[in-house]
Amino acid sequence: MSKKLPLSLACGDYEILRALKEGTVQPDGIELTVLTAMDSSTRHWRFLRNREFDVAELSASSYLVARDHELPVCALPVFPHRRFRHGFVFINTGKGIREPRDLVGRRIGVKSFSVTAGLWMRGILEHEYGVPHRQVEWVAELDEDVSFTPPEGLRLSRLPHDRSVEAMLAEGELDAVIHSDLIKPFVAGDPRVARLWPDYRAEEVRYYRKTGIFPIMHVLGLKREIVEQHPWVPINLQRAFEQAKTIGMQRMENPRLVPLAWYREEWEEQAAILGPDPWEYGLGARNRHALDTLAGYSHEQGLSRRRLPLEELFLPVDEGRKRGEFRI
Length: 328
What we know:
Elements: E1 5-10, H1 18-22, E2 30-35, H2 40-50, E3 55-59, H3 60-68, E4 73-76, E5 89-92, E6 107-110, H4 116-129, E7 137-140, E8 156-158, H5 165-171, E9 176-178, H6 184-187, E10 193-195, H7 200-211, E11 218-223, H8 224-229, H9 233-252, H10 263-274, H11 285-300, H12 310-313
Parallel strand pairs: 1-2, 1-3, 6-7, 6-9, 7-8
Antiparallel strand pairs: 3-11, 4-11, 5-9, 5-10
C-alpha cells in the first residue's frame, strides 16, 4: 500500500472547497487533514506567526507583507475568497458624511491596517474617489498578522484590548469604519450607523465595469519547507483545488440547492456581469490585473517596502501546453 504525504489544510468552509473537505477530490499523493472551524483572522495569524498549518487559506494583503519580510511562506494562485468591498464601508449618520470625499480628514476604524478588505477599499477610495489614505486618521482594533513599521506621514493608532471600532462608530468616536464583515450595530438596525453607499451593489457593478477587477481577498499559502522537500506538491494541490472548484460551481448551478426564490436569476445575472467563472484561479490576465493592483496599493500604503512582482509571489504551476486539463 502506497504511503501518502500527510498535510494539514486550514481554510474556510466554502462550496468551492467542499469536494476537498469531504474527500471527493484528493490531491494525488497527499492526505489532507482539513480544518475549517477557525475564523479568517485567527487562521491567518496562526499560519503567519506560528506556521501551525502546512497549507492555509491566507489574507492576500498579509501574504504580501510576509513576503516583503522574507518569511518562509509561498503561495499558489488559488483564490478561495473574493468580495466587492463597497458594501462594507459604514458611517456614523450624525457626522454629515454624504459622499466619499467627505471622508477626507476623518477618523476611520479598521479591523487591522493590513486586512485585505481595508487595503482594497483604501486603494479604491484613493484612486476612484479622491480620498488619499494619508489624509485620514486610521484607528486599528487588532494587531497585524505580520508586524510592519508605518511609514512617515501615515496616521495610524491601535486600540486597547477592551475597545472595538464597531462600538466606537455607533457612539460617534469614529466617523466611519471599513470592515471585512457586516458590523454588529448595522445588523442590529442601529440608526446611528449606515452604509456609505446605500446602493452599494450598483457602485460595485460600476467599479467592475470600469476596472475589470473582482477583488481577490485570499490566496493559498504553503510552508516553504514543504515545497523544498516535495517539489511535486504545488502542482498536485493546484489541480485538486481546480477540480474541487469545478465540481462546486457545477453543483451550484442547480437552483433547488438554495432556498432563495430568485436564485437562478441571480446566478445568471452574475454570469452576465462577471463572466462564466468569476472565481477563476491561476495567473490569467484578469487575475494578474487584480493582483498587480493590490500589490501596488500595498507598496503605496507602506505595508510592503517594495512593489512585489507576481513571479516572486506565486509558485509556478504550469504543466506544459495542453497538459493537466481536468475533465468530468
